[in-house]
Amino acid sequence: MLVSIDPSTPRVGIVVTDSYPLEDLDHDTAPLVDALRARGVDARAAVWHDESLDWARFDLLVLRSPWDYPERVEEFMAWLERAEAATRVLNEPALVRWNLDKRYLAQLEREGVAVVPTTYRTVVDDVAAELRAFADAHVVLKPAVSAGARDTGLFRADDPAALELAARIVDAGGTVMVQPEIPELSAGREKALYVIDGELTHAIAKGALLAPGGGLLGGTYEEHPELVAVTDDEEAFAHAVVAAVGRATGLEAPLYARVDVVDSAAYGLVLLEAELFEPALNLHVAPHVTHLVAAAVARRLEVAATRVG
Hints:
Mean pLDDT: 91
CATH topology of the largest domain: Rossmann fold
Strand content: 15-25%
Low-confidence stretches: 1-5
Strand order of the largest sheet: 11-10-9-12-13
Radius of gyration: 20 Å
Largest sheet: 5 strands, antiparallel
CATH architecture of the largest domain: 3-Layer(aba) Sandwich
Structural class: alpha+beta
Shape: globular
CATH class of the largest domain: Alpha Beta
Number of strands: 13
Number of domains: 3
Distance between the termini: 26 Å
Number of helices: 9
């Protein structure tokens, strides 16, 4: 149970899990909690599967790093339903549910957002036909519901391992995404553009992740984030993606969004993913952003209080 000396102090839970691998630590929660406390907010990390917590005691829950959810999706979805019944959750649970399945990319494409050409297949034979059409070119296969590049692979289309991965995804009840390789992405030129409460605050390059032939470079998921500049076109693109999300879902603008892009010779500037659930903000390499995130959370608290009042 939570105890607060002043019951009028707003209480915010930063939603996390209880352990992280050394190569994928949560660098955001501690500085964000400190910044919120400096603003007079009773903020604390809250493990999503901690059954001792009374979620109704929080005025707001901010989803940050519940990164073990892919191994316990049904449990997490049940928790999310309980949490939103008890208090306000950001980003909105309806937006999280929409964002969990990467088929949202097709919706954003219909809203005018340029995306990597993608097909979505639920039958292995259909994936095989897709791969034959690529001949000996390279392709990326991934499940529509995934995180941290789980079950994601870069293969020559005629590599039997590609079809083996597809079969594993389908056998688990998933949908296979089939995409052409983007050489610029394989070279590590992806940028993560962060939009916090409508403001583009910073951008991160995290380097290449996928090893040719399947699997991850170095054998584990490990980002190497570096702060990078943003072009005017990239900033406009990030805002256009967030606006398209609003049109596609009918929901309010997200508290936070990570818009992953790459500028490719073949397709131009394209969206790789719009992460609206639990993106690392990389505050350890962009510490100047911490107070901006805290201010955005405080504004949402004020809006909530006004609505209640």
